Amino acid sequence: MLKLGKDRLARLDYQSGSFRVVSAGDHVFCAVSGEKIPLADLRYWSHELQEAYKNAETANVRYAEARQRGDL
């Protein structure tokens, strides 16, 4: 059986409160930890930085870094 997007990195356009799939896949990587995040489990991302995060703690780490650099 053909399973498109199985074990393939997805490309997403992160928006405020949602995301749009640009290239089909089944996962993305956390911008902080590098861990694989299945799209079904993706709950945290930044539309300003266009990045995904594995959980709230890693999102907070990245936001603090971005604010310190003046990116946000």
TrEMBL record:
Organism from which the protein derives: Pacificimonas flava
InterPro entries found in the cross-reference section: DUF2093
Protein name as catalogued: DUF2093 domain-containing protein
Domain of life according to the entry: Bacteria
Pfam families: DUF2093
